[in-house]
Protein: Probable branched-chain amino acid transport ATP-binding protein LivG
Amino acid sequence: MSDVETEPTADAATTTSEDSTEATGSRLDEMPILRVDDLVKRFGGITAIDGASFEVERGTITGLIGPNGAGKSTTFNCITGVHEPSEGSVVFEGTDITSRRTHQIATEGLVRTFQIARELPEMTVLENMMLAPQGQLGESLWRSVAPIARREVVREEEQLRQRAWDTLEFFEIDHLAHDYAGTLSGGQRKLLEMARALLTDPEMMLLDEPMAGVNPSLEKKLLEHVHELQEQGYTFLLVEHDMDVIMNHCEHVIVMHQGQVLAEGPAAEIKSNDEVIEAYLGGEV
Ligand SMILES: Nc1ncnc2c1ncn2[C@@H]1O[C@H](COP(=O)(O)OP(=O)(O)OP(=O)(O)O)[C@@H](O)[C@H]1O
Ligand SMILES: [Mg+2]
Structure:
């Protein structure tokens, strides 16, 4: 773990004197927030991702589409450390995060939600929220033992509780705070998933079919939240099967097919791409 943490320092040490903070800052802004290069993931004999490369521009809602089994969820898993890629690299905010662990990647500001929500059903909504953030002070053993540090832990927990309430309010599920997560509807679970992911204070969120099982009015609300968050500066990569959602809400679309990137470009261009139409018709048989 310490090896990983010293990496950025080592990079900084080799930076030349030309790199003023200002210049570095503006370069960071221009850089894609996420870059995936030649990603390969094999499961035994199955090649789920077969050399996929793409970039996501900062501040966009980018769609990741493709027929069932194209490799979308596996790509998310490889980006966020759920699976280790067999080959290739993932660079987030200029930092190579390939093969890092999920919580380390979350600390860098990149989080995801799962195709099937992963809340803990036997805990309340609020308790689920309180479990979300990574690297809280309370997790560090010495702080729980030292008296002064303990006060810090308590203060941090209060702040976290407040943020949890604010986030639940933002998603309009604060009235469910004391209900067991297991009693929520499918749509409410999706909102809780997003609320939990947001609580880690990310810069970018990968959403894996966030609208699946969500009723139309909740879907509309969820999309409004995504746009509101985009306006605040968040970046989204969205896996979604509903083409209307993709076409109406994503400025850029990446199409995967059989583990590879088949096409990418502005939504309108993708819509009329013959190869994309073919891949979808083929996939639906
Ligand atoms: N853990 C695993 N072990 C073995 N094979 C896997 C594993 N995860 C995914 N696969 C396989 O990898 C391929 C890509 O699956 P993936 O779930 O990434 O597709 P997807 O594009 O997300 O599909 P969907 O739209 O149905 O969610 C499939 O053939 C799938 O069976
Ligand atoms: Mg999937």
Q: What stands out?
A: Residues 122-183 form one domain. DSSP finds twelve helices and ten strands in the chain.
